[in-house]
Amino acid sequence: MILEIKNLNKMYGKVQALNDFSYRFTEGVYGLLGPNGAGKSTLMNIIADNLKESSGEILFNEVNIKTLGSNFRKILGYMPQQQGLYHNMTLNRFLYYMASLKGMTKSEAEEQIDQILHLVNLEAHANKPLGSFSGGMKQRALIAQALLGNPKILLLDEPTAGLDPKERIRIRNLIAKISFEKIVILATHIVSDIEFIAKEVLFLNKGNLIDFGSPQVLCEKLSNMVYEIISAHDGVTDIAKDYRISNIFKDDKYAYIKVITTKPPFEYKYREAKPNLEDVYLYYFDEDVL
Ligand SMILES: Nc1ncnc2c1ncn2[C@@H]1O[C@H](COP(=O)(O)OP(=O)(O)OP(=O)(O)O)[C@@H](O)[C@H]1O
Ligand SMILES: [Mg+2]
After folding, report:
1. Which ligand 1 atom sits nearest the alpha carbon of residue 18?
2. Where is the signal peptide, in residue numbers (predicted)?
């Protein structure tokens, strides 16, 4: 299974939301990381055929998705970023309705909806109106509709936005569980959502694909660039002036300041630290830090 994106461009007036984006997706989970406005939702909307590209093409198993038409939609599950749910509809009715839009028969829907409700842990709420759901339940309801029809390609746009840590972990585990034999593309701002489940991570900024690779390979790029400075508590302000800080930990005696830098911080007491994906994120997108 190959989803191949070739030279995709999207302009909104003068704003280039996607700039010559190309990538080959195969089975597995892919994380799309990047700040607001990076182009993550634009990319997903174009793949989901909700938005027209300015130029470029998308091939599924070497066939242009335009020629696949509704057959492509059938193998696609899409969870949008915005929660546009029907408040008075019960979850059950919502899922039957979405199944009918996907062209599924009533008996197909019946069979799958029970399974999916179990998977997203919402069985007990199937007959409650969506308007009564918490944010986490709404996110899971949206994931549930994306799973209808057992799609081969699953697009999840910030599935854990606004969730408490427990819900976030629950959804992360769910995604890991359902990703078997699928291409899953997941946009997020939360590095820990994908650090351990993504086969590859793509960093997007202002429409450009600035780097990509397995979490391990991306982290290795930062080897010899991440250090922990051990300083007195009041030393943090000065260190922040000169260094890109990724984390601060304090105990009774010292502050342990993780910094990303091309040269070791010789002027301080320091030790080498192991880079993680969050460090890689900060390395590329440091403007918003502190
Ligand atoms: N309908 C639209 N009309 C005009 N500009 C748009 C529209 N949708 C998106 N844009 C612009 O395109 C760029 C990419 O937006 P997009 O929503 O794809 O980013 P994103 O990475 O999903 O951001 P976020 O993390 O905030 O969801 C931004 O500059 C945005 O302002
Ligand atoms: Mg978005």
Report:
1. 14
2. none
